[in-house]
Amino acid sequence: MTDPAYQRLGLPVTASPFTVLRAAVRALHPDTRAVRGFRAARKRFYQQMLCAHAARQAAGDEPSG
After folding, report:
1. Any idea what DSSP says for residue 28?
2. What's the angle, vertex CA 60, arms to CA 55 and CA 63, rounded to 5?
3. Which residues, 6+ apart, have CB-to-CB distance to 52 below 8 Å?
4. Rounded to two decimals, what is the model's pTM?
5. Does the pLDDT value for residue 64 go beyond 50?
6. What angle do CA 56, 60, 65 make, to 5 degrees?
7. Which residues contact 64 (CB under 8 A, 6 or more apart)?
8. Are 57 and 20 in contact (CB under 8 A)?
9. Whole-angstrom Cα distance, residue 59 to residue 55?
10. 48: pLDDT confidence band, cut at 50, 70 and 90?
């Protein structure tokens, strides 16, 4: 099952990790990005988006035959 937050990024399977990270940063509200106390939560969110993308790429790389 894919993370709904990752699905909202709307990225193709071929997107690079840097593209995923940029999309995840843009997905957060500027006020959320500005709060220092949320730093650990933001880092977890970015890591979850990267992991979801890697899992999607791994699932897409499997042979379908």
Report:
1. S
2. 125
3. 2, 3, 6
4. 0.84
5. no
6. 150
7. none
8. no
9. 6
10. very high
Q: Which two tokens stand for residue 21?
A: 């990270």
C-alpha dihedral sign at 3, 40, 38, 22: negative
Question: In this structure, what token pair is assigned to residue 45?
Answer: 């969110």
Sequence length of the chain is 65
10 Å Cβ neighbour count for 25? 13
Torsion over CA: 37, 41, 45, 47 (sign) = positive
Cβ proximity of 10 and 26 under 8 Å: no
Structure tokens, 19: 């593209």
